[in-house]
Design goal:
- With 349 residues, the protein is α+β, with helices and mostly antiparallel strands.
- It folds into 2 domains: 223 residues, 3-Layer(aba) Sandwich (Beta-lactamase), CATH 3.40.710.10; 102 residues, no CATH class.
- A hairpin with a 2-residue loop joins strand 10 and strand 11.
- The two termini are 33 Å apart.
- It comes from Sphingomonas glaciei.
- This is Beta-lactamase family protein.
C-alpha cells in the first residue's frame, strides 16, 4: 500500500509517494532531489526486470489534480530509436533485413549516393545522409503537422549528396530514422507500429507501452507534460517520425525491456553483440542508443526527449540492475543523467 503526503517545494505542490520497497536513505535523497529540482515524474530501480524501489513526485495532470502513479506512462522520445534497432535485428535474424545491406535494397527509389549507404550506418547515426527532413521542419514548423507517411517523405527527399562518407562521423539525423521506418514497412508490408509491437513490445513483455496518435499527442494513462512556466508542452511527432520517438511506456515497461533484451529473450547472442557494439566512440553510440562503462561495468544508456518529457533508462548488464527516470516537467537531461549514474553505480565499501 502506498502512503501519500503533500508538501510544498519552491512554491509548487509536489505529491510524494513512499517507495514500494526502498531504503530510508534513498527515499530521503530522492525527496531532496525532487525539492531542489522541482522534479515531476518517477524514479524507479529494478533487478531482474522487477521494480523494487519506486519514487514518485508531482502530478500527471495538473488541471485534474491527478498524481503520478506507478502505472503512469510517459513518452520516451528517442528511446524509441533503440526499440527500432532491436526490431531491425529481429528481422535480420530471420533474413528479412541485413545490417550491411545498402538501404537502397529496401528503398530503390533513393538516389545513387543515398542508396549505397549501409543500413547499420543509419542505425548508428553516422550515415552521411544529410538531415533534409530536419531542415525542412526547421524552415517550416507546419511540416511537423504533416500527415504524410514515411514512404511519401522518402520519395520527396530521395536524392542528394552525402555530407560525409558513411562511418566518418556522428550526425544525429532525423532523416536516418524516417528511412529506417520506411524500410521496415516496405520489407514487412505492415505498419511500423505493428512491427514494433510484435517484434519488441510483446517479446519483452511491455504491458502498457504503445504509440501516441500523432494527431493527438496525449492518451489515457499517459502523463501530460509541462514547461517551466506551467504551460503544456507535449511535442508533436508526425507519422513519418514514428521510428525516431513516438512510444510511451511506464517505468515497469522499461525495466522489463532492459532485462529481457540482455537476458537473451528477445535477441540472439550475435544480435546482442551488434546492438551493443559502439560504432561512434566519441558519442558512445552503438545502434539506436548509447553504451557506456560506469564503475567499470558495461551499461546500456538510453535517453529520450520530446516536448517536456524526459526519459532515461540505464542498465548494468552484468548485474541485471536498472534505473528508470521518467519526467514530465522539462528537467535538463544532464541533471537526470547525473542522478541515474549515482543510483546505478554501487557505493564503494
Amino acid at each position: 500500500m502506498f502512503s501519500r503526503r503533500m508538501v510544498l517545494a519552491g512554491g509548487a505542490a509536489l505529491s510524494l509517494t513512499s517507495p514500494l520497497r526502498g531504503s530510508p536513505a534513498t527515499t530521503s535523497r530522492l525527496r531532496r532531489f525532487a525539492s531542489a529540482h522541482r522534479f515531476s515524474g518517477i524514479v524507479a530501480q529494478a533487478r531482474g526486470g522487477r521494480l523494487h524501489d519506486v519514487f514518485m513526485a508531482g502530478l500527471a495532470d495538473r488541471e485534474k489534480g491527478l498524481p503520478i502513479e506507478p502505472s503512469t506512462s510517459f513518452r520516451i522520445g528517442s528511446i524509441t530509436k533503440w526499440l527500432t534497432a532491436i526490431a531491425v535485428l529481429r528481422l535480420a535474424e530471420r533474413g528479412r533485413m541485413s545490417l550491411r545491406a545498402p538501404i537502397g535494397r529496401y528503398l530503390p527509389e533513393l538516389g545513387k549516393a543515398f542508396a549505397a549507404v549501409p543500413l547499420d550506418n543509419l542505425l548508428a547515426n553516422n550515415s552521411g545522409i544529410p538531415d533534409l527532413v530536419g531542415r525542412a521542419a526547421a524552415a517550416d514548423p507546419s511540416f511537423r503537422a504533416s500527415t504524410a507517411g514515411s514512404a511519401e517523405i522518402v520519395r520527396r527527399f530521395a536524392s542528394g549528396m552525402l555530407a560525409f562518407a558513411p562511418g566518418e562521423r556522428f550526425d544525429y539525423s532525423f532523416f536516418n530514422w524516417v528511412l529506417v521506418h520506411a524500410a521496415i514497412e516496405r520489407v514487412t508490408g505492415r505498419p511500423f507500429e505493428a512491427i514494433i509491437a510484435n517484434e519488441v513490445l510483446r517479446p519483452a513483455r511491455l504491458t502498457q507501452a504503445g504509440f501516441i496518435d500523432t494527431a493527438h499527442p496525449t492518451a489515457p494513462g499517459v502523463a501530460q507534460a509541462y514547461a517551466a512556466n506551467g504551460a503544456l508542452k507535449l511535442g508533436l511527432v508526425p507519422p513519418f517520425g514514428g521510428a525516431s520517438g513516438n512510444v510511451h511506456a511506464t517505468a515497469a515497461d522499461l525495466a522489463s525491456l532492459a532485462h529481457h533484451v540482455f537476458a537473451g529473450r528477445v535477441l540472439r547472442r550475435r544480435s546482442l553483440v551488434e546492438l551493443t557494439r559502439v560504432r561512434v566512440p566519441d558519442e558512445n553510440y552503438a545502434l539506436g542508443g548509447r553504451m557506456r562503462v560506469l564503475g567499470g561495468r558495461n551499461t546500456a544508456w538510453q535517453t529520450g526527449k520530446v516536448g517536456a518529457y524526459r526519459a532515461h533508462l540505464a542498465h548494468d548488464i552484468a548485474a541485471d540492475r536498472t534505473v528508470v527516470i521518467l519526467n514530465n516537467g522539462d528537467l535538463e537531461q544532464s541533471v537526470i543523467g547525473k542522478l541515474a549514474e549515482e543510483l546505478l553505480i554501487p557505493p564503494e565499501g
